[in-house]
Structure formats: C-alpha cells, structure tokens
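Input/output pair, single chain:
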Amino acid sequence: MINIYTTPFFTALVGLCLGSFLHALAHRIAFEKPILRKRSHCPDCDILITWYQNIPILSWLALGGRCCNCKALISWIYPFTELVSAIAFTLVWHYLPLQSPLMGVAYSLFIAALIVATTTDLHTFTIPQAASLWMAPVGIAAAAAQLLHISLLQSIFGACAGYISLWLVNFIFKKMRGIDGIGVGDMELLCMIGAFLGPVGVWHTVMIASTVGSLWGLLMYLLHKEANGIVPFGPFLALGACCQLFLARQLWYVFTFGF
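Output:
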C-alpha cells in the first residue's frame, strides 16, 4: 500500500501551499506591511480574501486574474511563485540524494529564501537581507553539521566568493560608467547562494544568470525598445542556483568540457 504522504504529488501540494505563504510573506516584506497583523486582502480595495479565493493557482484561474470585488488585476507573480515552489520542493525531497530528513530541511530553507528574494525583486527591485545575507550563516552552519553536499570550508569560501565577485564587477562598472550596475541585494543573495552551493556553485550560478539575464534583456529591448529598462538580476541568480542544485553534475561537464 502506497503512503500518500511520501509521494511527489503530496509534496507538490504542500509546495503549492508553501509558495502561497512565501509570496504573501515576500509581498508584505517588500511593501513594508505588517506580517502577522492582518489576513490576506486585496491591496487595491482592501477586501479580505476568503479561503476559497486563496487556493493556490486554482483561485487565480477561477477569478480570471482579477479581484472579485474591485476587478483589479492580480499579478501573475502569485501563481508563478506557487507553481515554482511546488516544483522546487518536490525536486528537493524526491530528486536530491538526501542523507537525512534534516538535509532536506536545509535545502528547503535555501529554496524558500530564493523564492522570497525572487518575489520581492520582481515586485520592488529589492531583495531583503532576511532572504539573502542573514541566510548565509544558516548555510555555513548546515555545512558544518554535514547537512549540505559541500564542506564547511567550501561553504565559507563560497559565501565570500559570491559577495566579492559581484562587488568587484560593480566596482569596475562604476569606475567606467559612474553608476552602479549591480545592487547590493544581488551581492548579498549570491553570498547566500555561495554558502549553500560553494565556490563552484557560485561560478555556475553567475554564468547561467548572466547568460539568461542578457538574453532576457535583449528580448525586452527588441520588444519594447527600452534601452534603459531595469532588469531585476535576483530571479536569474535564483534560476542559476536552482540549476546548480539540481543539475550540478551535468553543469560540471558543460562548463568543463563544453558538452
């Protein structure tokens, strides 16, 4: 008899609910709203959202992406966050070679931080330190407790390399152009990524994020002709980190041998 609580389907359902919670948390952090003081509500008309209007993905589809009261648009970021969360948490618990449940918890915290950082960056072009810099010691502690696939030294070196690498890029860019090219939030996010994935993870993350981010920026320019359009870099760093987490061996061969 199959235990449903250990199936990928159940994990995906839990991931959807966690994604809904993480988005609400990120939204309140991004717009500096009380985290625990009020139930979910429409930011436009302030009407409280009922439980059946808060079912992950399904409610957004049923409402046509609009508030049931004022008909204001509900951002696509809501269902996107929920879907990504379901996929990511399912991969952590059913794809990664976990040596213990605590290792799964450690990587789940990493995924949760990436989701919050991505959501806030998409909404307000900011990344809270609670989802970046403050999580770096958590990654280092997890590595020290052997709850990651990297050593303590790799975690410490990865955290330092993550921050310093983007700081140097921004320093050179600012010397050449007179303006910042990379935000401090991105540096702190890569610091956290390095703490969980190590220096090799930082390198692969930056390569993927830079490539995909450049292609996305080019596409937006071709579509909208906005040469000075701001592109949040956090979501691309999160994408690169997830690729490294779930496809580490494949990426090693790609970046080492070119195939």
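Residues 227 and 246 are 34 Å apart (CA to CA). The radius of gyration is 19 Å.
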